[in-house]
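#lab-general

N.A. 3:47 PM
ok so I finally got the sequence cleaned up, no stray characters, all 153 residues accounted for. can someone with queue access submit it? mine expired

B.Y. 3:52 PM
send it over

N.A. 3:53 PM
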Amino acid sequence: MSQERKITQEEINEMLVHYQQYRDQVEALTQQLGVIEMSLSDVERAIATIEGMIGRRKGEESLIPIGAGSFIHSVLTKPERVVLGVGAGVCLEMGADAAKEELVKRREEIERALSDLTKRLSELTGKIQQIQRVLEQVQLAEAQQFQQPMVGQ
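B.Y. 4:20 PM
back already:
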């Protein structure tokens, strides 16, 4: 930053307000990022489970993942069918291939959202760093001003 003109206290206060707003936004986006990453993981597990079920036969015994690295024993009655949640508590039964296709589309949407969120987070982090640099330079300039000997002493 060029020190051609001195930054006013009002401008410093404004920067501090923006700094806090950006930090609050970063915190909110970081939380959203965690939720989106969990959703992505959930969809990827569902896709992997469907892929593991494709080609299985009726009456075959299987271990079904229930989360947290845990499984239950089951006997397959309709291994070629999947009950897929479509939102608002509504589920549809469909073929395994169609369900996998739908989940792949969801994964792509989630990945786009994750990318957009990561980009926004990076932009905010850049703005925070920019404000920090300016404030550090102002602080340094003020410190140097007080350390200079007074002329005429």
